[in-house]
């Protein structure tokens, strides 16, 4: 998006493994991507944890398919992920989405307050992330498949749509 905000980046992510990695530690460490039009892949290859290089290198990737399917692949995970310290950087894996609303204060018209709404998060059990493993996310139907809110609310699929008084629309 256009807005970079520390809290927004903490709540909007697609993370096969988020930790305090230092890709510049070794010449052999790389973060590469590939986009062939139907899949976008990011690979972290032989990356090390900052200050914990003796733990070994990690190799993993995230593949985002145009169908909405997401696959996290783990080739080399040298230590159990729960043993990675979160003191310098959060350690997590999964998906999260949020949006930010800029509100003006009626008392101070030129002021803008940022409010971040995290509306969905899927957290992986990091103890299950091991070498030569993978996790696949498949998309559920969404309201975006419909041409109007009325069609969505009356559809056979159950979205649990509800009225959002802030946005003045169904979600």
TrEMBL record:
**Where's it mainly located?**
membrane
Q: Which UniProt keywords apply?
A: Membrane, Signal, Transmembrane, Transmembrane helix
Subcellular location field: Membrane
What InterPro entries does the entry give? PLXDC
Topology with respect to the bilayer: Single-pass type I membrane protein
A single GO CC term for this protein reads: membrane
What family is this protein classified in?
A: Belongs to the plexin family.
Indicate what this protein is called per its UniProt record: PLDX1 protein
- The gene for this chain is Plxdc1
């Amino acid at each position: 998006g256009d807005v970079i905000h520390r809290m927004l980046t903490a709540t909007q992510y697609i993370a096969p493994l988020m930790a305090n990695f230092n890709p510049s530690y070794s010449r052999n460490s790389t973060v590469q991507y590939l986009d062939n039009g139907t899949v976008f892949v990011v690979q972290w290859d032989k990356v090390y944890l900052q200050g914990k290089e003796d733990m070994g290198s990690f190799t993993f990737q995230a593949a985002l398919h145009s169908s909405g399917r997401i696959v996290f692949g783990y080739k080399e995970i040298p230590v159990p992920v729960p043993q990675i310290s979160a003191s310098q950087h959060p350690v997590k894996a999964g998906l999260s989405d949020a949006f930010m609303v800029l509100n003006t204060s009626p008392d101070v018209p030129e002021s803008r307050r940022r409010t971040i709404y995290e509306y969905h998060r899927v957290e992986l059990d990091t103890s299950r992330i091991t070498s030569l493993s993978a996790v696949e996310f498949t998309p559920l139907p969404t309201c975006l498949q419909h041409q109007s809110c009325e069609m969505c609310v009356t559809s056979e699929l159950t979205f649990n749509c509800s009225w959002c008084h802030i946005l003045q629309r169904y979600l």
